[in-house]
């Protein structure tokens, strides 16, 4: 099962014509990814400030299918495709009323905020991410 989360498209997320401004999508995606971690009891605040682990996105591939407009509710489905030693491959499909609006594949890497090098996922984080891991068919 993917992690699912819905977010309304607010006025501030749109250009003057009421169409979503694409950088707002990325901000929403960060919120959704943060919510996914929180769903298994790991806050980003604790990861970053207590455990000193950063979560930078190192690659992303986005495909915009059609515009969304002010007032739409975006439904995010985050699929965990792979969990590496320190990497995490996600595919997120964003829909409005069942129609795909945009998709993104991204790789996040756990890094030490002290040494700025990759670091292994802590066991509790790995276990939480595994709740949403989908094996290839």
Reconstruct the topology from this structure.
Layout: E1 3-8, H1 22-39, H2 44-50, E2 53-54, E3 57-64, E4 73-83, E5 87-96, E6 99-109, E7 111-112, H3 123-130
Antiparallel strand pairs: 1-4, 2-7, 3-6, 4-5, 5-6
How does this structure look, described?
The protein is α+β, with helices and mostly antiparallel strands. It is built from 3 helices and 7 strands, in the order βααββββββα. The chain has a 5-stranded antiparallel sheet with strand order 1-4-5-6-3. Strands 2-7 form a two-stranded antiparallel ribbon. A hairpin with a 3-residue loop joins strand 4 and strand 5. The chain is elongated, with a radius of gyration of 15 Å. The two termini are 13 Å apart. The mean pLDDT is 95.
The amount of beta strand, in percent, is: 35-45%
Order of helices and strands: EHHEEEEEEH
- Chain-averaged pLDDT: 95
CATH superfamily: Hotdog Thioesterase
Key features of this structure:
alpha+beta; 5-stranded antiparallel beta sheet; Thiol Ester Dehydrase, Chain A; two-stranded antiparallel ribbon; 137 residues
Summarize the structure.
The chain has 3 helices and 7 strands; from the N terminus they run βααββββββα. By secondary structure, it is an alpha+beta fold.
């Amino acid at each position: 099962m993917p992690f699912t989360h819905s977010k309304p498209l607010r006025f501030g997320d749109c250009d003057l014509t009421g169409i979503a401004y694409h950088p707002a999508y990325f901000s929403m995606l960060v919120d959704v990814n943060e919510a996914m971690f929180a769903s298994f009891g790991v806050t980003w605040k604790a990861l970053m400030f207590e455990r000193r682990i950063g979560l930078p996105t190192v690659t992303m591939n986005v495909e915009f299918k059609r515009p969304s407009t002010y007032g739409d509710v975006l439904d995010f489905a985050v699929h965990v495709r792979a969990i590496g030693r320190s990497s995490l491959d996600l595919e997120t499909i964003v829909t409005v009323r069942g129609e795909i609006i945009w998709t993104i594949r991204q790789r996040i890497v756990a890094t030490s905020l002290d040494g700025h090098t990759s670091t292994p996922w802590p066991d509790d984080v790995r276990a939480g991410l595994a709740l949403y891991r989908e094996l290839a068919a």
